[in-house]
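Need a sequence for this fold. Nothing fancy.
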């Protein structure tokens, strides 16, 4: 399992993913689930993945191969697509095609494979956009009413986002929100694990403006986690029970 979250705000976008992949209690490994595609000064795209590793890795590999191909065009390359909507369509079509191929191979064993992705970015002359791509290739888009998207093991980290994230949330507070959202998930589900990958894309920067890997035992993350636990305990004690 995994957990990835993306926030689309007035000031920019904040994205966070874990790196744990598990195929059973005795088969746990670390794989990057956040991938960046950039043309400096022209566009930036970040893709986060959840689900079957064979599906997600093959999808990312094919996107990269197409970008590098002499036949790359606005119809098949996310680095040449005219809009972020077209980028989402290309990613969705590639994901659906790969998923179908993998499922066909696994069908004889009675197994299935599924994956989902978050695609976020901006191209020169366009606005910031963020999409959640479903396994079938269709997608939804983040809006002012719902300025965040999640994939993977999302239920534990959703409450804090529902309560504090708004389009006008600052990038600093947004980073705090996604990290505490991840902290709640780490505490409640062992299939999500460190290290974490954090990326920030400031509005109109057309580049990833902050990129940080947070390792297990990171002192700043640990201090934030401890402070959040204390704040919850203190707040709980201050609330009176029903009469």
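Here you go.
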């Amino acid at each position: 399992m995994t957990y990835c979250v993306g926030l689309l705000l007035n000031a920019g976008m904040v994205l966070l993913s874990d790196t744990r992949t598990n195929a059973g209690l005795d088969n746990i490994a670390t794989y990057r689930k956040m991938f960046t595609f950039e043309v400096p000064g022209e566009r930036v795209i970040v893709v986060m993945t959840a689900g079957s590793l064979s599906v997600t890795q093959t999808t990312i590999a094919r996107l990269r191969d197409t970008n590098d191909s002499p036949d790359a065009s606005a119809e098949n390359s996310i680095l040449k697509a005219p809009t972020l909507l077209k980028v989402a369509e290309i990613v969705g079509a590639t994901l659906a095609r790969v998923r179908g191929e993998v499922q066909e191979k696994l069908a004889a064993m009675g197994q299935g494979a599924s994956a989902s992705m978050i695609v976020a970015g901006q191209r020169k002359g366009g606005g910031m956009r963020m999409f959640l791509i479903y396994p079938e290739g269709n997608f939804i888009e983040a809006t002012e009413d719902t300025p965040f998207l999640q994939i993977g093991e999302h239920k534990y980290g959703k409450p804090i986002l529902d309560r504090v994230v708004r389009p006008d949330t600052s990038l600093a507070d947004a980073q705090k929100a996604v990290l505490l959202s991840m902290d709640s998930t780490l505490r409640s589900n062992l299939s999500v694990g460190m290290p974490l990958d954090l990326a920030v894309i400031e509005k109109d920067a057309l580049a990833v403006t902050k990129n940080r890997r947070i390792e297990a035992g990171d002192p700043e993350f640990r201090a934030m986690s401890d402070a959040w636990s204390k704040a919850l305990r203190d707040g709980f004690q201050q609330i009176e029970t029903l009469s």
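For context: The first strand starts at residue 3 and ends at 8.
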